[in-house]
Amino acid sequence: KMAFVVKLIQRLQLSHSQRDVKPFIYVRSSWLEDKAEMDFLTTFDGQNYRGTLLYDEIKSAATELDQNYEEFFEECKNALTTHMGLPGFDYEICEKNGEQVFKLFKCQGYEILYAEVALRKISNCFHLLDGAIESAQKEASQAPPNTETTESQGGSISIKEYEQYVRDSKHKETEMLQKFLLLINSKKAHIRRLESQLEERSQEREREREREQEESDEEEIYGAATEVMTLDNPSP
Q: Across all residues in the chain, what is the average pLDDT?
């Protein structure tokens, strides 16, 4: 199992009202025996996604494009595991038939769709940061002392961006939990009020039935038929 954490540039078509700001896609990919499990984190909408790229899908694409599978596979893998992307490739997360998908294009005068991964939203991708830090630590331990390369500098920048994203995500998550707790407490208070009102109405109905029963009993007592009292005449 090989895992990579890279930063890619999301391609966008700018309108006149948009600023020329490069949005990024962070990708953590684990390359297994028959598939690549991928997590995505976007800076342009702050969403986290997860998807799976099956090697059979890469093989089908290679067949359709009339390319050697092994070479095509390595090209796709390099494009998805190279920091800042492989030259000549474009990366995009977009909507397709109401669902989000990740697309990998090769651009050589015209664009060719190399891979497409169906995505599902997930709550967070904090383990992306762990992967980035672990990768940076390995690079630092392997690098000669007192040497800095552009690539290592880019890696440190990526880690800072990951850390900032995680801090922002945790802050948003805390805010959402607080709002959720307030909502739950409000619902509980409302339920308690309803239960209290229901209990009061039940007691009122019970008292009303008791009053009605008492009135009915009184009517039976005072409204009962009376017998005529007759006096016997005394004998002469």
A: 77
